[in-house]
Amino acid sequence: MASGPLVGIRVLEFTQIIAGPFACQNLSDMGAEVVKVEPPEGEPWRLFSQFMPMEAKYFQSLNRGKKSLVLKLQEPEAQAIVHALVPSTDVVVVNYRPDVARRLGIDYETLSAFRPDLIYVDNTAFGRRGPWAHRPGYDVVAQAVSGLMAGEGKVTGDGPEVIRSTPVADYGTGVAIAWGVCAALYHRERTGEGQLIQSSLLKTALAFQGSLVFDLPAADELTHQRMDRVHQLQAAGAPYAAIIEAYNPLKLTSVGNIYYRAFATKDGALAVGALSASLWEKVRRAVGTDYLGFADPGFNPLDPEFVKKAESAVREVEAKLRSKTTAEWMEIFDREGVPAGPVNFPEDLIDDPQVQANEMMVSLDHNLSGPQRQVGPLLEFSRTPLEAQGASPPLDRDTDEIVRRAGFSEEQVANLRARGIIGGLV
To answer: I need a labelling partner for 107 at 20 to 30 A (CA). Which of 62, 237, 290, 302 fits?
Structure first.
């Protein structure tokens, strides 16, 4: 039995890969019934690094708690099934290009005619207007176009290095979509109005960069000088590494930094995060140094003499950190009240005591692959607890049930399946 604040809400999902599936997984965790519509061959993420036919960890980690409806949407009869489902559907989430959604009969104008108070999410890579509106795009492209990749400042060979740890634009957009749906449902509850919600990977990636994508003439003289130099190098055909060296917006703040960074230790690494004068003092006391760094009234990263002394002092602090284990330093930092933590590997966090104490993992049983543990719902609600509604669905598991619910008889369902309008590839 589902629980959560969205119990009774029905969602039709026409998405693939990460952003849309993650959004709808969050809605499922909140109690919504999510029906994922897939083509007969399954969505691409099922096929990426399969560990058994039609199953991949990538897919299973983003599609728990959903039902699987397989439709050949190019066929008018499959579109008719969608149209029959929409009157009892509250939310539709789509991440196709505009021409594709219209061609398949699942665009906002078409579906809202069947339910005027429908909430419809239209997610794209770059937005629906402008010279890039027609272009498809994945997280890696959004990283590049938005400036995230350049801001990361890493270079491999003669080009930029991709942010590999997480597809930040995808996951961020997924959270934004779920947030937007909840707000739209609240608005509909108050007014009876449905609406179209538009999201994009580009806008999420821009928003996540904060002050870098923020024009403030009163404060931006140095920024403009830096960007003028970057544009000069680009025009001159300079190597990418030289361009990034000139661009680096945090270069000056990294000089002499001992307060907000990671350090190698005797047996690994840890990170320290101190962003106030009182915390800076605690870091110095914990490490046993009188080097002031950011706290120095004479801090001047543009003075070569200052930089030379700062770099020497930082090397001494780094050597101190390497003299003790991570556990020893954590005990010291805890005693002094310094925000710090070990640099962990994500696979090790599944059984981490802090993760376990806060019940951040959930145990599920997949119909085909058996037991699994994954990160549970993002939030904890005291009155309407969130709950993972089961593992991800095997392809085509729920098709017949959902088509019958749309008003089709057993005979019609069998006929549709026999003609390949519904159901997965055999």
So the answer is: 62
Q: Provide the total of helices (H) and of strands (E) in the chain, helices listed first.
A: 19, 13
| Amino acid identity for residue 226 in this structure | R
- CB 95 within 8 Å of CB 20: yes
Amino acid identity of residue 98, one-letter, is: P
Paired residues of 260 in beta bridges: 273
pLDDT of residue 426: 59
Between CA 27 and CA 347 the distance in angstroms is: 25
| CA atoms of 203 and 205, how far apart (whole Å) | 5
Q: Is 318 left (phi over 0), alpha (psi -120 to 50) or beta?
A: alpha
Q: Are residues 97 and 124 in the same domain?
A: yes
Q: In the chain, what is the greatest distance between 2 CA atoms, to the nearest angstrom? A: 85
- Domain total in the chain: 3
Q: What is the pLDDT of residue 320?
A: 97
Q: Which two tokens stand for residue 301?
A: 């990263």
Q: Are residues 196 and 322 in the same domain?
A: no
pLDDT tens string 46-99:
999 999 999 999 999 999 999 999 999 999 999 999 999 999 999 999 998 878
Q: Report the C-alpha gap between 148 and 171 in whole angstroms.
A: 14
Measured from the Cβ of residue 350, the count of other Cβ atoms closer than 10 Å reads: 13
- All residue ranges of the chain with pLDDT < 70 are 252, 426
pLDDT value of residue 302: 81
Helix axes 277-287, 326-336, angle to 10 degrees: 130
**What's the confidence (pLDDT) of residue 303?**
86
Provide the whole-model pTM. Answer: 0.95
The pLDDT assigned to 354 comes to: 97
- In Å, how far are 82, 110, 197, 281 from 406, measured between CA atoms? 8, 17, 25, 66
Q: How far apart are the first and last CA of the chain?
A: 32
How much is the pLDDT for 250? 76
Residues 230 and 269 placed together within one structural domain of the fold? no
Q: Are residues 240 and 331 in the same domain?
A: no
